[in-house]
Amino acid sequence: MGPSLNGHAGAVDWIEHRFSRGNPATLYYDEVRSNVYIQDVIAVVEKFIADFQPGIFHLGGPLPLTLYEIGQIVNKLGHYDVALLKGSLRKEAKPIPPRVGNLTMDSSKILKLLPPTMIKPWPLDEQHLPTSKDWHVHREKRFSAGALKAALYGYDNAENPRSPLNWYGNPDYFAV
Fold this sequence. Notes:
The chain is an alpha/beta fold and about 180 residues long. Helix content is about 25%, strand content about 10%. Helix 1 (about 10-20) crosses helix 3 (about 65-75).
């Protein structure tokens, strides 16, 4: 999970892109993902470059979430109108082609090669985990404007020029 280069192609930024323009997003209750922070993916790639390991590996996060739950998190942390989040089962979505429901990954093979804390759960903060289908409706506090990106795109220092939070719109990012 991290920002996409165009600002609306990744799961979080696509959902936020819709919500920020007042457009609804219909997300599936029964499509499950293995979310992983882009920082962790980068760290794993760097480790494999430094210490090559042959084989084919899956790399997913340890906390599977449905697309609807991801939408709930974006909706609540971004303080968007709750009516913008729509839920559906995949079989109810027509006329699109069938979608795979379980997109989780068995990462046990690669995890044996990595330090135990290298792959963190997404979202990192347990207070951002939905506990029911209407979890996003209950708003005890308003999150700051930067909370969404800081909590869901990265756990590292956003002031760091190499932070994935600084990818979008920064033509010099890859030159750093």
